[in-house]
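Hi P.,

Sorry for the delay on this. The queue was packed all week, but I finally got your sequence through. Input first:
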Amino acid sequence: MRSRRSNSDVRPTFDHPGIGFGCDYNPEQWSPEVWTEDVQLMREAGVDLVAINIFGWSHIEPRRGEFDFANLDTIITMLHNNGIRVNLGTGTASAPAWLTTEHPEILPMVEDGTTRYHGGRQAWCPSSPVFREHARALVEQVAKRYGQHPAVALWHVSNELGCHNALCYDETSAAAFRTWLQQRYGTLDALNAAWGTSFWSQRYSAWDEISTPKLTLSTPNPSQVIDFHRFSSDEILDYYRLETSIIRQHSSVPVTTNFMVTAHIKNQDYWSWVDDMDVIANDHYLDHRLDNPRLELSFAADVTRGLAQNNPWLLMESATSAVNWQPHNIAKTPGEMMRNSIAHVARGADAVCFFQWRASVQGSEKYHSALLPHAGSDSDLWREVLELSHTLDSLDEVAGTTVISEVAFIFSWESWWAADGKNRPSTSVRYLEQVHAAYWAAQSLGLTVTMVPPGSDLSGFRLVIVPTLYMVTDAEAAAINDFVHNGGHALITFYSGIVDQDDRVRTGGYPGAFRNLLGIRSEEFAPLLPEHVVTLSNGWRGSLWTEHLRVTTATAVETYVDGPVAGAPAVTRNSFGAGEAWYLSTALNEQSYDQLLGTIVQRANVRPSHPAADGMLEIVRRADASRSFLFVINHNTHQTQVSASGFELTTGNRVDGTLTVPAGAVRVVREDSTHE
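Then the structure:
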C-alpha cells in the first residue's frame, strides 16, 4: 500500500503485500494456552496483520513507572514467528485506574459541567498536561522497546481519537481554547467581530472572560460553538502529533491512527488531519439506525478515499456480523460480510481488518461479533471468514491501483457542525441526510464520486456535486465558480453558501456566496413541515424546503405547482462562462433526484461506471497505467448480468462479453484492456 505524502516531507511507506487481512487482538483477555491456539487459527484463516496493545496501558504499566513487557514480548514474538505482521498500538487509548485515581483532574467534563469518571474508556481530557505527561512516558517506553522490532509494520496511535472525549469543557480546556483563539484572531476586537458579540451583550474585554461553551439557559453563541469544534479537532490532532513525534525518534515504520468516518461521529475535521498521517485508516460499522446502512458504508469508504487523496487506504476495523452499541444489533445475513468487505476494497482499501479476533466473554463488547465467534471454528461465521480470506487473496494484484472518477463531491465537517446548529430555519433539514441523498442519487446512476474538501482544485473533473454547503469561505466559493467558468458543471442544493467562516450570514439575498454563479436570488426561506410535500411542474415531488426564489440570469427549469411559493422556480440552470450551474431548492424524493441528476450527468458528458449500475448493483473500477479491475457487487436477491471481458479473479474464469453475478455475490474482472 502506498502511503500519503505531505508536500513538505517524505513519509514512511506502509508496504504490505497484496490486499491485507487483519484484526485487533486483545491477548490480555485470555490465558497463554489460548494465545497458542489463536495464532494457529490466525494462520489457518490467512490473517497477516494484527493490531495489539490498543488498550494495554494497565497491563504494561500496572503501577506508575513500573513497566512489564513480558506478555507483550511473547505475543509479538509468536506473531512474528508465524509470519504475521504487527500493527502496534501505543496503549494510550484509556488511562489506567492508578492514573485517574492519583490525578482526577485529567477526567473529562461534558457540556453540562459535570465530570465523567473511570470505568469506561477515553476517560481523559485531550488538553490535560498531566495526561499528556504520563502518555508521553508510556509511548517513549513502547517506542524505544519495539521501534526496531522486525514484526512491527505499522504504528497505531491511541484508538479512535475523540470517539468519546472530543469535546471537553473543563477549565484546562478553556485555557487551551483561549490560547488557540489568540493564535487565530490575534486581538479581542477581531474575536468580537468574528463572534458577533454585540448581540446579547456578549462582548469580551479580556481573554480570561472566555470559556468553553457549556450549557446556557438560552442558546449559545453559534460562532463560539463552531470555533470550539475547530479547537477541539485541532487539540486532539495535536495530541496525535505528540505521540507520533516520540515514535519517530525510535522507528522509521509508518504511523497512523484509526479515523471514524461514519454517520454518528462528526467532531473531527479529518481534512485538517490528513497531512499528519503516513497512511489513511478508517473504522466502519454498519449503522442500522439509518435508513440505508449499506449505502452509508459506500459513502464512508468514498470519504476515506478522498482523505487519502485517492491513494489506497486501510480499513482498520469492521464487524463480521453484529455490533454491541446500537439499540438493535442486527446480525449480518449470509454473504453480507463478503459484500461489505469487497465494497471497501472496490473503493480503495488495500486491507480489510476486523474488530476483533476472538469474541470477548466479558466487558462491554462481549456481544460484539469477531472473526472467531463464541461458537468457535465450527460455525457458519468462521466458514465465511475463511471464504473472505480466500477471496481477498485472489485480489492481491488489485493492491496499489486507484479508483476512477469524473465527479467531485464536496463534503465538509465544518458545514456539518454549522448547518446542524441551534436556532436554524428547520431542524428537519440535517446536513448529513442531504449529503446522503445526493450521494444515493449518484449511486443509483452508477456514478463513482471523489470526495473533496471545500476549496479543492476541481480541474480534471467534469461535474461537482455540492449538497447543502451551508458554511463556505470566499476562496472556497471561488474554487467552484472558477471550475464552472472554465467549463465544468455543478449541482448546488438548497441551504448552501449561506454563511461565511464566522457563521455570519451573507447579505443581499440567498444563496449568498453562489448567487452570481447560479444566476438566482432568494429573498426568504420557506421551509416545510415534515409531512408537507410539494409538487413541481414536471410532477417531481419535494419536501422539507422551499424558498422565495427568482432568477436573474438563470433559466427556471422547473417551478412549484403548490406550496407556500407556488409559481416560483424550484430547479434552475445557469450558463456561467463555459460551464453550467444548477440549483435545487427542495429535497426531492429518490426517483425525482435520480432524474434530475441524470439530466445533469448527460449535459456534463459524465460516463457512469457501468450503464447497468443501479442502487442494488454496486459497480466500481480500480485501475493503474496498465490494468483495470471491474468490481461488481450484487446486493439483489436475484442474479444479474453486466457487460465485461477479461479474467474474473474470484472464480478464476474467463469472461467474454457478459459477466453473470449470482444473487448476493461479488465478482472482480481484470479487464482485457485499460478502461477508457
